[in-house]
Amino acid sequence: MQRPRIKLVLAEAALETVPREIWGHPAVYKTAKRRGKTPASILLDRSLHHQAMKGLPEAEKRGRPDIVHISLLEALSSPLNREGLLETYVHTIGDYAIFIKPETRLPRNYNRFVGLIEQLFEIGRVPPEGEPLLTLKPMSLRVLLETIQPTKIILLAEDGEPRRLREIAIELAREVAPAVIVGAFPHGDFRPENKKLADGIYSIYGGKPLETWTVVSHLLAILADHLGIV
Amino acid sequence: MQRPRIKLVLAEAALETVPREIWGHPAVYKTAKRRGKTPASILLDRSLHHQAMKGLPEAEKRGRPDIVHISLLEALSSPLNREGLLETYVHTIGDYAIFIKPETRLPRNYNRFVGLIEQLFEIGRVPPEGEPLLTLKPMSLRVLLETIQPTKIILLAEDGEPRRLREIAIELAREVAPAVIVGAFPHGDFRPENKKLADGIYSIYGGKPLETWTVVSHLLAILADHLGIV
Fold first, then answer.
1. Residue B9, Ramachandran bin (φ over 0: left; ψ between -120 and 50: alpha; else beta)
2. Measured between beta carbons, which residues in chain A are less than 8 angstroms from residue B213?
3. Does A82 reside within a domain?
4. Is residue B1 part of a domain?
5. Which residues does this entry assign to the site Interaction with substrate rRNA (chains A, B) (predicted)?
């Protein structure tokens, strides 16, 4: 069987540094100070900044670094990735793209992951010296997709066409380099301009929402099964 | 198709409060004090207590609450669990069993999860009032299995008989109430007395180690596919 190289894109991810509007909020100031950092350099995190986030636009979609953390751990630890058949990208809600070397071993500990992503937002690469494992660039989802040049683009969303995960895996595996886009935000919908980029939009669980990490792990598992890897 | 009820057991989990031998270690004392807790009441965490853990027996298997956290998030968020076909248990390296109501919504944030498990170790149940979602009891893996009475016991380990995940799913789905045991420790092997409890020991990835959450998510995904849920 031809072995595709799957391009997994976590899109509109709830991953950003604290926005300027709330730098002065006591909840932000306090968490920054405790860590010896400036409000501008720490990640927005609903578990710490819930009160401060109330007035932010699209607040319900923001401030959840844990979604990207767990989803990336699933992607990078997956047999599919270990067999060299996966590329993983993050597009953030603030229109940054993160390029991740497949051999990257992310911190398992959440607080260390947060520190690493803060460094990434500060200097654009991690580690600072030598070959970078993670690289950050300002980039819309459209430009990210133009850059990675998938042969087909599938987006998973609750309001998509109902489709079994296995059928999606078969469709992806027929391609040389397909992209699959999974939303990495806690609530709400994709932006219309991003949804338009897909060749097909599918729903895998009867229109009910699933956690991002569940979608990622289940898709990669069914793909690995289909390709005979597990 | 008959719908089995799968009993997932995360075993010998690297989840415990700081052991007495290292209560006085500066790294332990410092992290306890910063959180306004006693050394006895905080979780052992390698990301904080690495230095202090050096002399502990079985140190390489201990102090990784993140493994249980991510694996439980995968289990409880899975379509299999949401369809009512999964029961999830944790057996810890210190021989405690954690009983988890399937509808439990665990904290997504690691630090909040740690606080919740510390409360569980302190008072034996969470939440403290009303119907408990999590219950903790001193219990060996053997007694836990006697308590939950599976119709068959499959254990997954690197040195097991090679078996495709799909074949394991088919074997499990033939049973009414099978248990599947996954190690929730970072390195090393199961204790011999625990391994002996299994009817079958299988290896799913060519004898190579996988992260606990990867094993859990991939097994649950293949089961959900086999049962027509996703």
1. beta
2. 73-74, 77, 217
3. yes
4. no
5. 64, 105, 108, 112
- Per DSSP, the residues of A97-150 read EEEE-TT----SSHHHHHHHHHHHHHHSEESSSSS-SEEEEE--HHHHHHHH--
A71 CA to centre of own chain:
7
User: What is the number of other CB atoms lying within 10 angstroms of the CB of residue A106?
Assistant: 19
Structure tokens at A160: 């998509």
Residue B209 assigned as binding residue: yes
Q: What is the pLDDT of residue B3?
A: 85
| Cβ-contact B191, A187 below 8 angstroms | no
- B139 and B192 inside one domain: yes
ipTM for the predicted complex comes to: 0.96
Count CA atoms closer than 13 A to A28's CA, side-chain side: 21
Determine the residue among B202, B210, B225 to mutate to test chain A binding: the one whose Cβ has the most chain A Cβ atoms within 10 Å. Answer: B225
Tens of pLDDT, residue by residue over B90-106, are: 999 999 999 999 999 99
Which pLDDT belongs to residue B191? 97
- Residues, chain A, total? 230
Residue B13: name the closest of B101, B107, B100 by CA.
Answer: B100
For the entire predicted model, the pTM comes to: 0.97
Contact assignment for A110 to B112 by CB distance below 8 Å: no
Structure tokens at A20: 């300027």
